[in-house]
Amino acid sequence: MRSPLLVVPLALFVVSACSRKPEEPSESRSAPAEPKPPAAPSAPGADNRPSAPPGSAREIVWTDPAGWQKVPSGSPMRKATYKVPAAPKDPEDGELAVFYFRGEGGSTEANIQRWISQFPDAKPADTKRSQRTVSGMNQTIVEVEGTYSGGMPGGPPSAATPKAQYRLMGAVVETPAGPYFFKLTGPKKTVEAAKSTFFTLLDSVKSS
Q: What is the value of pTM for the model shown?
């Protein structure tokens, strides 16, 4: 006959085992990462190229002077060439040439000295300078007169006969794309008569 004392502990063990709850997952386990949604496709025709860097240099534009004839330029260094009508009794027309060298034309002072050197007999009193600002760009103006020997930028002096009673009005315009050089030359009266129109052109200079 089985002892009652042994039956009771066995019954208690069975009841305890049946009442135990299943083990829950630990909170310390990391949840799986959710996948990132795919990037939205570009709209048809959208321009996905990177934008131009800020402050990109732009060239300049200006208004053609009224009454001055624009003529073909004989050099790739010239952005424009204008024929300036001669004043009464002057022997020939004047010329305005606009040069741009893309950073290879030398400093403002070097160009002014080159212009002055084209008048070998000019005295310091024959040369005038001034400064002005238009559309946020500095303009250095130089005026010199005397016997003009000519000469091309970066080249030897012209072999042509020197011209007496000549005058030069030049402007170095310091633009974000580099300096532009506006050079007006001609007989003294012609250049003097064109002075107002020359400054009107310089007042119209602006970034493109």
A: 0.69
